[in-house]
Amino acid sequence: MGVIRIGPTIFAAFMDFSLQHTDPKSKARAGVVTTDHGQIETPIFMPVGTAGTVKAVHQREIKEDIAAEIILGNTYHLYLRPGLEVIQAAGGLHKFNGWDRPILTDSGGYQVYSLGDNRKITEKGVRFKSHIDGSMHDFTPERVMDIQRVIGADIIMAFDECTPYPCERKYAEDSMHMTHRWLKRCIDHFDQTEPVYDYSQTLFPIVQGSTYPDLRRQSAEFIAEQGREGNAIGGLSVGEPHEDMYAMTELVCDILPKDKPRYLMGVGTPENILECIALGVDMFDCVMPTRNARNGMLFTSEGIINIKNERWKSDFSPIDPEIGGYVSTFYTRAYLRHLIMSKEMLGAQICSVHNLTFYLWLVKQAREQIKAGTFASWKNQMVKKVTTRL
Amino acid sequence: MGVIRIGPTIFAAFMDFSLQHTDPKSKARAGVVTTDHGQIETPIFMPVGTAGTVKAVHQREIKEDIAAEIILGNTYHLYLRPGLEVIQAAGGLHKFNGWDRPILTDSGGYQVYSLGDNRKITEKGVRFKSHIDGSMHDFTPERVMDIQRVIGADIIMAFDECTPYPCERKYAEDSMHMTHRWLKRCIDHFDQTEPVYDYSQTLFPIVQGSTYPDLRRQSAEFIAEQGREGNAIGGLSVGEPHEDMYAMTELVCDILPKDKPRYLMGVGTPENILECIALGVDMFDCVMPTRNARNGMLFTSEGIINIKNERWKSDFSPIDPEIGGYVSTFYTRAYLRHLIMSKEMLGAQICSVHNLTFYLWLVKQAREQIKAGTFASWKNQMVKKVTTRL
């Protein structure tokens, strides 16, 4: 990390990305992202910690059992509760929740758009009504940079509009241009402000353009030109066919700079992740492993398990010994089924830790295969396994 | 533990209780209970694992963080779900839920009586309707012994009637006599049957008699005469004034044999536990530390915290560093408040682990004070602390 002085008292270090291996038979890459809160080996999956907590998972479990290297926080949720005053008083989100490795925050845009009638988008930004107490708030590109500065994320996301699927071409095009104008405002404001705490922060711009190849190309070129330390692909995994997701991802990855990490937002199933690693994506996040966990859906190295099925009632084998980790090797399928059927919290806890352990195991395996030059064939076998319903 | 042969293939070891110290200024005792699943240092608090799970707490946390030495299971819940077939196929509850230290099961009576119109008590036993699927079931003293044999508890409780408070004298007296007749049937059946698994089980009878001193005396004498390896006091902590609870407990403890452990069922607050240790009780269980935890009520070494209070909003000190343990020293009050206010599962998890850690810390402190001969004065100071509202 280079270090430069900005102003009289604050100094900022840059985030660094080192590309280590490229798979010979696909576009898969292995690299290392270095932040002031430590290194991230890519490809990586980032557990989602919406309100400063990865739901149902202790911080110790995220670190020691799941072996996550970076987690997400949601700006919208954290801004409303506990609020910036509390987070700043704590010394930032890392200090507040006790997670001392890297954190990435989304811009809050995605949550705000989901509010439907309770939000209004203009060129200036978005006015929305809190889902908690009905109070009115304004998110602008500048404000969202300030908020993420205070939250103290290592990686800050640009304020964009995530278009729905399907999306009329005219809307997608206008929205993309607004996202680009907002990006300029984000960059200007970010570059003119300093970190609130004593570590560096970096800003990732986001490619939009819905499922229109020419818009995606135009957006990717615009984003690439900004020369930031990492780049993201947004607006996918919102209901479009997988073929479209893969086509847009490949098109965009081919344009985004090779020497910067690429983050595909909100993706996805184990299969999606493997396919998109093959297309050159380095970073992923998704609520699926934790959300589906709470309904008893398990992702394992042998396939998908609905633990509520009668077939697991007397299966006293461990959940998934292959991937290691406390919950996956200690608890049996029969016991876990009992907990989920009985709506016991421990069931959701075990499934959440297990699914995240599996996701991190999966990207670590992918990394090892990329380093060994065997990723492409392994990926095809693994996709068959992870899509099997047991 | 003595070992004798019963029948051709099964052998049973006896549970042992060794009384080590008696406090000079109170009736408090320190001892060691030895079972085939390990030793229990008394006085002890037993976390309640209703359906084979201490709610919201991983088995690893119960063992390593909370340092519990024995947990409870509820016969009623386990019998209905997962059911005896699954538990027996697993090899008993220890194997099913992965807890390899001692387990005590209640008799299911308390839960069954709580069903109100959905149960009918006769001399034979209780017929009740499942709260899960409405199916009809019969619990008799004999059946309940068989069920607890299959669950595989180290300590099995007699099938009794727990009278409500207030309770007419006539009802209390008749009920006590029926509980005594049921006890004889429990003992006959228990002594004629063998453990299902390869470790010993022991049966504790239960003193009843509501808040009538003469009935309590009569019941305690009857229970003492049975000469079992441990004895329990039931029918308290059901709404009666604390003075009555203490008076009945003292009266009964004075009659129950000194060389056998005494278990006060369903008690209680930290204050109740300290006062009843002073009266000669060795074992306790209560849902309070976990149930209240889920609403954000914390028991600490300095007093009671309602974590929802505004005053904790920016309190970045640990929950209770005094008692040690991961959650109590790692998470801050402000973060925990945020989790509970946001209804995040992790909030209930942290509060549950913390409260149980505190309860186990409290009885361990009591034990140390008894061994040092300083229990009585320490207890009076501690009662003041634990009843303070912070």
UniProtKB/TrEMBL annotation, chains A, B:
Record-linked InterPro entries: ArchSynthase1/Queuine_TRR (IPR050076), TGT (IPR004803), TGT-like_sf (IPR036511), tRNA_ribo_trans-like (IPR002616)
Residues the entry annotates as binding substrate: 106-110, 160, 208, 235
Positions of the UniProt region annotated as RNA binding: 266-272, 290-294
A biological process from GO: tRNA queuosine(34) biosynthetic process
Keywords: Glycosyltransferase, Queuosine biosynthesis, Transferase, tRNA processing
Domain of life of the source: Bacteria
Gene Ontology molecular-function annotations: tRNA-guanosine(34) queuine transglycosylase activity
Residue span, tRNA-guanine(15) transglycosylase-like domain: 26-386
NCBIfam families the UniProt entry points to: Q_tRNA_tgt, tgt_general
The protein, known as: Queuine tRNA-ribosyltransferase
Classification of source organism: Bacteria, Pseudomonadati, Bacteroidota, Cytophagia, Cytophagales
